[in-house]
Write a structure and sequence with these properties.
This protein is of the alpha+beta class. The chain is built from 19 helices and 27 strands. Strands 8, 9, 10, 11, 12, 13 and 14 form a 7-stranded mixed beta sheet that branches. Strands 16, 18, 19, 22, 23 and 24 form a 6-stranded antiparallel beta sheet that branches.
Length: 760
């Protein structure tokens, strides 16, 4: 902004203005000079005014503000200086309401009446320069070259600049249009060139595609050639070395050879084996050594008198069971053979094993020959590649076929009638889809067994943990927060360092029963209005004053629906008062009395930075409902901090466990567990929120079986004086206890069971 004149500041009038604004405006905000002129001056001038003011409150017309003390002090210093030097304030803006003045770097706006104009510069924007120079008698005294060349005023020059800018803008538009036309022209040229060469490019692409197809044919032919060469080597016995494990008499030549078409996985089968048989011995034994020394293991993997079966360590990742011996065997298997497929060949008392090349033979689905959808055996499908997803899988089956055909052909390991071929139907080759185990579905899946036998827990029930149990915030700093007791009871933080190990047998230490009630309220619309008390102020923050507003509410009969508030009551105690035998209405009356609850409550809802109260409502109590009961089951978990008690002894805390973190052993029995182990039908059993695979479940089933077998020994001793035990009596006992909710067998209950099942 340009200087429009010179002015002096009437200090007496200015101080009177400051005093009035500082004192009187607090009581009479309607007299505020700032509120009066804020919309009468240009925005840039109003901004200067506001920078010189301090807000102290709010009025209906806007903010209440007074002059800043530091600005007044700065004006005083400049006024004293200008007066002493006989200088003036620069006048930058002037109306009847406000004046903008400047001294050095200080620019302020004050009421017009506190200044006096000394001089006001003439507006010369429309007067040519030469005329101005003539006025001062300096037409020829070294005038500027612009003034010599152009007889122009300031506004005339502005107009010329504006006209020139319009021309520039016009030329810019013309350039942009030309650029657009150029691009369009280039695009036309490009399309013409593409069209011109498209036929040539199409021909080249066609030739390229032909070459690619030729290359695919050649690669396919090379793969088939390599496959055929390797299959011949398989047939000749060059790819697999069969190592004798046991020797003895051969079976009859006419005995049929059973070829098991399902690959057996060691992490599953060995876990199943230790569940059924007593396993002991050297924990450093190899799988081959175990086959040599354990007839039961041989019968499991090669159950026929003359048979062939295939083995592998695992489907994907090895699942180690809890047996140290088996775990070490699996580790050694993987070290020596990795993902190789092993071939077991048995003829009478003779047993051999050979390991295939894992780079050549890989059958992910575990089915060697047959078609899963029809359950029909067909080696030709394997040779033709109809049933596999990749040519590598097809080749893998073809190599297995060639190895087996070679074994039969050379007659060194297997004794069969001359001329027998595995690919042609004959009475001497049986292709079995079984895996050596008889399967049934008498009891359903293991998941269904668990669901059926998982009755509500009682104190003392034994649980098998199915994962390592820690606080939900175990890896967060907030677990150390005072009064935070995640998974614990009460408010005192005792569980911060507690944990329960995986695959551990633990008793239920404590059970809390949490009853949930819902208090039902009817909602009605509430009208909210505001009333302003003009001229009245209340204390605000930081010593400021605020304009007083009063809210008024009016209840209507406009129904808005229901509101539900929950009450949680633990172990039938509400604030130390028993609720046993109380109806829901009596529970509410007690809750209302203890916590000073009102039957009618107003809810004034005001969104942030808004005067809209349309969502406001009031509630009227209607009734109370019982919802459900939740049981919280706790295990005594060991704490790592022994200093908790201060005596150096082990410390414990009650830690809550959830249903997918344990296996309830109360009503399970050894028959159910062996059934699940033998049949592999886990059926969606969940632990830790994840469905458990058969291999993953084996360690837990074995651990549960170990405990339950010991429990059943005690149960058998209780029953023997009153009855003769029969096969699978454990099932009847479990189901009988479940039906009567008997969590433990006592002598009296043993007599009762014997009376009902003695004849069976």
């Amino acid at each position: 902004m340009n200087v429009i004149g010179k002015a002096t500041l009437n200090w007496e009038k200015y101080t009177e203005y400051v005093q009035r604004e500082t004192i009187n405006v607090k009581e009479h905000p309607e007299d505020s000079w700032y509120l009066d002129i804020r919309y009468k001056v240009p925005h840039e001038v109003e901004s200067i005014v506001w920078s010189c003011m301090r807000k102290i409150g709010e009025f209906k017309n806007g903010p209440i503000a007074i002059p800043k003390e530091e600005i007044v002090e700065e004006i005083k210093k400049h006024q004293q200086y200008l007066t002493s030097m006989n200088l003036y304030w620069d006048l930058m803006f002037y109306t009847s309401d406000a004046a903008e003045i400047r001294s050095g770097e200080l620019v302020v706006v004050v009421p017009s009446y506190v200044i006096e104009k000394v001089m006001e510069f003439e507006n010369v924007d429309d007067i040519p320069v030469n005329e101005l120079r003539n006025r001062i008698g300096a037409a020829d005294s070294g005038s500027h070259e612009v003034a010599q060349k152009y007889d122009l005023s300031r506004n005339q020059m502005k107009n010329k600049i504006s006209a020139t800018q319009e021309k520039i803008n016009k030329k810019q538009a013309e350039l942009e249009q030309l650029e657009k036309e150029k691009k369009e022209e280039l695009e036309r040229f490009r399309l013409e060139l593409e069209k011109k060469y498209q036929s040539k490019m199409d021909l080249m692409n066609e030739k390229q595609e032909e070459l690619k197809q030729q290359m695919e044919v050649l690669n396919r032919q090379m793969f088939l050639l390599n496959t055929e060469i390797y299959s011949i080597r398989c047939f000749m016995g060059e790819t697999v070395d069969f190592i004798p494990l046991t020797t003895g008499a051969y079976s009859k030549v006419t005995d049929p050879l059973v070829v098991y078409q399902k690959i057996r996985y060691l992490d599953e089968e060995l876990g199943k084996w230790i569940s059924i048989y007593d396993v002991d011995g050297d924990d450093t034994a190899l799988f081959e050594d175990m086959l040599k020394s354990r007839p039961d293991l041989r019968d499991m993997f090669v159950p026929g008198n003359k048979c062939i079966s295939l083995v592998r360590v695992a489907h994907n990742k090895i699942r180690y069971c809890e047996s140290k011996q088996i775990a070490n065997t699996l580790k050694k298997y993987y070290v020596y053979h990795a993902n190789k497929v092993g071939i077991l060949v048995r003829d009478g008392e003779n047993l051999w094993i050979g390991w295939t090349d894992q780079d050549r033979i890989d059958i992910p689905d575990g089915n060697v020959f047959y078609r899963p959808e029809t359950k029909e055996s067909s080696i030709e499908d394997s040779k033709g590649g109809q049933r596999t997803s990749t040519k590598e899988e097809t080749a893998s089956r073809y190599f297995i076929f060639s190895i087996l055909q070679g074994l039969i052909h050379n007659g060194k390991l297997l004794h069969l009638p001359e001329g027998v071929q595995i690919s042609k139907p004959n009475p001497y080759i049986v292709l079995s889809m079984a895996d050596g185990w008889l399967e049934d579905d008498r009891y359903g899946t293991f998941s269904s067994i668990v669901e059926r036998t998982s009755a509500p827990l009682q104190k003392g029930d034994m649980l098998l943990t199915t994962l390592s149990i820690k606080r939900d915030d175990a890896y967060s700093d907030k677990k150390y927060r005072a009064w935070d007791n995640d998974r614990g009871r009460g408010s005192y933080n005792r569980t911060y360092d507690a944990s329960i190990p995986n695959r551990s047998i633990e008793p239920v230490n404590l059970i809390d029963r949490e009853k949930i009630y819902e208090i039902i309220y009817k909602k009605y619309k509430l009208i909210v209005t505001e009333e302003s008390s003009e001229g009245k102020f209340i204390d605000g923050t930081n010593g400021a004053k605020s304009y007083a507003i009063t809210r008024h509410t009016q209840r209507t009969q406009e129904y808005l629906g229901l509101e539900r508030n929950k009450i949680h009551i633990t172990n039938d105690k509400l604030d130390g008062h028993s609720i046993k035998g109380m109806t829901p209405e009596e529970v509410y009356q007690l809750y209302k009395k203890r916590y000073y609850i009102q039957d009618v409550n107003e809810q004034v809802v005001q969104p942030a930075f808004s005067n809209n109260y349309d969502s406001s409502y009031y509630t009227v109590y209607d009734h109370t409902e019982y919802v459900r009961e939740i049981r919280h089951n706790y295990i005594s978990a060991q704490k790592s901090d022994t200093n908790f008690r201060g005596d150096g002894k082990d410390a414990y805390a009650n830690m809550e466990v959830f249903s997918d973190e344990y296996l309830n052993l109360t009503f399970l029995n050894s028959v159910y567990l062996l059934y699940a182990i033998q049949n592999r039908n886990i059926g969606g059993w969940v632990r830790g929120g994840q469905v458990v695979s058969y291999a993953d479940s084996i360690p837990y089933l074995n651990k549960a079986l170990e405990y339950i077998r010991e429990r059943e020994k005690d149960e058998a001793e209780l029953l023997k004086p009153y009855m003769d035990l029969y096969d699978d009596w454990q099932v009847d006992l479990s189901e009988w206890r479940l039906a009567h909710n008997y969590h433990r067998l006592t002598d009296t209950r043993a007599q009762k069971f014997a009376r009902e099942f003695k004849k069976k």
